[in-house]
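Weekly modeling sync, notes
Attendees: S.R. (lead), two postdocs, one rotation student

Agenda item 3: backlog of single-chain predictions. S.R. asked that every request posted to the team notebook include the full sequence so nobody has to chase files. The rotation student volunteered to paste the first one in as an example of the format we agreed on. Action items at the bottom.

Example entry:
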Amino acid sequence: MASGLPLLLLVLCSLTAAEAWLRLYNLRARGLDADTFSAADGYVKVIIYGSAHLGTTSVKLNNPNPFWTEEFSYFDASENDILRLEVFDRDLVYDDLLGVCQRRIKVGTHQHDCCLEEGGTLYYTYTLGGQ
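Predicted structure, as returned to the notebook:
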């Protein structure tokens, strides 16, 4: 008669290493501060720090209060991964980094805001759930 211990260990290991899906949406900003010659042309880079670049939003021209309709998904996320959002002002020669928001993600749906180093606030919502 074979022992069920190896199967039990396999099941327990798979439970502790469970993957989850991440959905980031409802990205918007208020009061983006651009250079002195024009309003901000903002966009956001979405990153799971150390794991994946999820994409970049469209550029919202001449808008200090942009709203982005893009949603980002990642199916290999884990609780406590670091979600990194980099907010830029697009310029002709060099895009200015307006600020970085970082947060360890948790299971559930969460709304957050983040004050940007160069002025303005980024707002976003994410959901982290099991597969």
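Discussion: group reviewed the output briefly. Residues 5-16 form the longest helix (12 residues).
Action items: rotation student to repeat for the remaining queue; S.R. to check formatting next week.
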